Amino acid sequence: TTLLCSANIDLSYLLHSIQVSYMKKIVLFFSLSILLLASYAQLSNQVRAFRVGHQKDLLLAYKSFLEIPNVASDQSGIKKNADWIASLMKDKGIGNVQLLNPITNGMPPAVYGEVITPGANETIILYAHYDGQPVDSSKWMKGLHPFKPQLANGSLINQATIIDWKNLDETIDPNWRIYGRGASDDKAGVFSIIHAYGILKQLGVKPTVNIKFFFEGEEEAGSPHLHEIFEKYQQLLKGDMWVICDGPVHQSGRKQVVFGVRGDTHMELTVFGPKRPLHSGHYGNWIPNPAMDLAKLLASMKDDEGNVLVKGFYDDVVPLTAAEKTALAKVPPVEEQMKKELGIRKPERISTLNESLNLPSLNINGIQSAAVGNLSANVIPTKAVASIDLRLVVGNDWKRQQQKVIAHIQSKGYHVVYSEPTDDERMHHDKICMVHLSSGYNAQKTPMEHAFAKRVVNAVNLAIGYEAVQLPTLGGSLPLFIFEEKLHAQPITIPIANHDNNQHAENENIRIGNLWDALEIFTSIMTIGK
Questions:
Q1: In 3-state terms, what secondary structure has residue 463?
Q2: Element (DSSP H or E) covering residue 257
Q3: Do residues 232 and 362 make contact, with C-beta atoms less than 8 angstroms apart?
Q4: Which among 127, 153, 157 is positioned nearest to 140, based on CA atoms?
Q5: Strands (E), 13-139
């Protein structure tokens, strides 16, 4: 005030001028906001109209994609998928399409392409993976096969019926589903991203950013060679924001934007009994039973409230930030819905679902020892095997987490080996556990305050017409730690699949409406505003 008075400036006039200027800015802001909303509404209507007019062709094209086997270990099938994707990208007008091969020869390539927009000075990189989980076709429902996609007029669990592809016309209910391996995880992402750009091109709408497309072929195998691709093509893969398409929408049905993923690693534990199977009547009560021993060992790793009892399991967890806690408080509750849907009266933990997903976990993926059912015999088995899955949050290191589990096994009196025990080892140790360690990767999180991420959230909200659920961490895992480590990128994830899609299991499916929503979401992201 002293400075203003000494300069002979009328303070009331100055305050009035500031107020007028501020009001003008507010009016301008809301005017631009209204124009932006109108522009997005127009684009959304155009995209929807185009899709409605071509939805039969879109589904038939997707069917042909799903018919190509995509198990990560099947190199021939993986190559066919990569070639199919590259051909589709070229057909939709995407430039510089090429296969990015890892340094290690013979490993699955990533499929790359780009669209450079004149005048754009920002770049978004869109990611999905085209490989899938292993399959056991015998476990699929009668009439289904992992690589012979079937169309149904709803969920087969709810007694829906199969629709013959030959009878498909333009009248397609969004609640219909396509069953097949990769239908939701993650060919839906690949297909939606490419076709979203294809629709924009057909409509004559130019993206507002440069777009790079990156489709990985080894994610379901743990992305063991992704770091090689990043190192080899570091300059090519530079961008302002990686947007990852993978995973399911929120259980409430609302779309979600996720700022982090848990890390992942696996261990296989084998406990040994007699060198040959024995008659349980002649030797029971005397010879140790490896199935029982393994059951006790696994049971010692968790208490009745779902807390992992492995020493130090939670010690290095980085606490949630204030913004992350606020976001979790806004997540719609789905616990009662999911308990009823899954036939579970009491969950393992008393915390909410999403609170539980922000902690590291230890789960049993499978146990095997001798036979059951019609093949069951009165024997004491020679060994028992369990596959366990360790999910990690930020702060955990996957190698260190494995070592904590090994130390727990040793604390229970087991001699740990990493190959089949010798006769000498059998004679010197009461209990032996063979451990097979898989590779893994750590968790990753992007700050919820990240400026570009907020713009992506706005683009998603404009596409869906409501505020998307925002989560600090997805329950599943993706190798996003490698993105941060090798490319200094901070990705966010846009899941599109229905929450009951059976990913990684038999009868995997995608709700067609989710596929259509993805087209509108990604066209919105490609025309993202400031």
A1: helix
A2: strand 256-258
A3: no
A4: 157
A5: 95-100, 110-115, 123-129
Q: Helix or strand or coil: residue 82?
A: helix
Say if CB 147 and CB 133 are below 8 A apart. no
Tokens of 397: 């290191």
Q: CA–CA distance from 85 to each of 114, 194, 518 (Å)?
A: 13, 9, 18
Count, residues in the chain: 530
Amino acid at residue number 282: H
Nearest Cα to 444, choosing from 475, 487, 481? Answer: 481
Tell me the three state secondary structure of residue 49.
helix
Helices 11-66 + 187-203 axis angle, to 10? 120
Of residues 160, 122, 128, 124, the one with CA closest to residue 141: 160
DSSP state of 485: H
For the chain, the distance separating the N- and C-terminal CA atoms, rounded to the nearest angstrom, is: 37
Q: Is-contact 67 145, C-beta < 8 A?
A: no
How is residue 115 annotated by DSSP? Answer: E
3-state secondary structure of 220: helix
| Mean pLDDT in order along the chain per 10 residues (530 residues) | 43 53 56 58 90 96 98 94 98 98 95 97 98 94 95 95 92 96 97 98 97 96 94 97 96 95 96 97 96 98 97 97 95 94 93 93 96 94 98 97 98 98 97 96 96 96 95 91 96 97 96 97 90
Establish whether the linkage from the previous residue to 186 is cis, with ω within 30° of 0. yes
- DSSP 8-state secondary structure symbol assigned to residue 440: E
In this prediction, residue 19 carries a pLDDT of 63
User: What CA–CA distances, in Å, run from 266 to 263, 365, 438, 498?
Assistant: 11, 9, 5, 26
CB of 210 closer than 8 Å to CB of 117: yes
Helix axes 451-464, 11-66, angle to 10 degrees: 70
> Which tokens belong to 333?
């509750």
Residue 179 identity = Y
- The pLDDT assigned to 16 comes to 56
- Cα–Cα nearest to 384, from 514, 284, 296, 320: 296
Task: Record the tokens describing residue 337, joined without a space.
Answer: 């819905």
User: Residue 478 in contact with residue 186, Cβ under 8 Å?
Assistant: no
Instruction: Give the pLDDT of residue 6.
Output: 42
Residue 340: the pLDDT is: 94
CA angle 405, 410, 416 (to 5 degrees): 90
Cα–Cα distance between 430 and 355 in angstroms, integer? Answer: 40
State the pLDDT at residue 103.
94
Cα R_g (the chain), whole angstroms: 27
The answer to whether 529 and 454 have CB atoms below 8 angstroms apart is no
Q: What beta strand segments (E) does 419-512 contain?
A: 432-441, 444-445, 469-471, 474-477, 492-493, 509-511
Strand-pair partners of 211: 115, 124
Burial class (CB in 10 A: 0-12, 13-18, 19+), 246: buried
Return the HEC string of 336-390. Answer: HHHHHHHCCCCCCCCCCHHHHHCCCEEEEEEEECCCCHHHCCCEECCEEEEEEEE
